[in-house]
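Hey, sorry to bother you again with one of my protein questions. A protein chain has come my way and I'm curious about its shape. I'm sending you its amino acid sequence along with the backbone structure tokens. I owe you a coffee for this, so here goes:
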Amino acid sequence: MLFSRLIVRRVRLVSGVVLLLFVAGHLSNLALGLVSVDAMERWRGGLLMPWQTGFGQALLLTAAIVHVGLGLASLASRHSLTARFSADYGFVLAIYWRYAPLLALQQLLVVVIVWAHGAIGLYSTLVLRRSWRRLAPIVVPILFAIPIAALLGFAHAGEAVLARLATDTAWRALIDQNLQIRQEMGHRLDVIEGGVFLVYGMAVALAVGILAVSILRRRRTRVVVSYDGGLTAVGRVGMSVLDVSRANDVPHACVCSGRGRCGTCRIIVPADADLDPSAEAELATLLRVKAPPDARLACQAHLLGRPVSVRRVYPALVDAEAAREPESWSVATEPDLETVP
């Protein structure tokens, strides 16, 4: 393997943080609309200028390509033009609030979705760390405050822009002139946008196609998984043990939703269990939680063909505390794993 799963995971995290910082800069600038449009314009240089340099644009483009590419690769590998016009904040807000309110709604929706995606990713990574108790009172309020302040700033600044459009005829004429230039460029921009969406759509279709072929090919071979307490479930070649548990409603702990980060889904398996070998990322997690040699992560252990017997370590009700402090959950205090709710 050219890149290990552990390296891929870290690269995807770093690229995601870069994109989150970019969105945070835009949202913070929008939040300044609570002060004034002039304040938004004054701070735009400090908040957004780093991304307008050659290095910043290259970094942002690279992060976007890497993050989206790795996301598509993860899906496929699953087993189950510069314009010369005055584009300041006043112009942008005037377009959004007077000429194209639906475009404003679209832009806001996209930004909120991107922010939510990044916030969930950042939270799911930090919540598993021992330092989370110290970070939570700082990180969680920021993740909520930035988008809320941005939406309020956008609304407040929009009100100011509409008032200026109604009273400042010279500024309104400048807005109309810039809008005409933008409309003249619209065809070329639409062609570029269409090409981008076409390429991305083809990439998504390819990833989904690879996933579908992989699933259909594996559906032919069934594998029986035996659990502690006499429970049994039927899966197929290529499914992870956790996938089998979910498909058959077998209670199974999994704080990180099967990303191989928390270690709470781990199982004890025989030495000759017919499962694929542990990858570097899985071994790193098992080492961090001080798991014994016969332990595997159920989300990373894939069926190869013969029946498999496993024993779950944690009850399905465990939370992130079991990932941060594995020793806090002792065998003596665990509920009965055999009970199916």
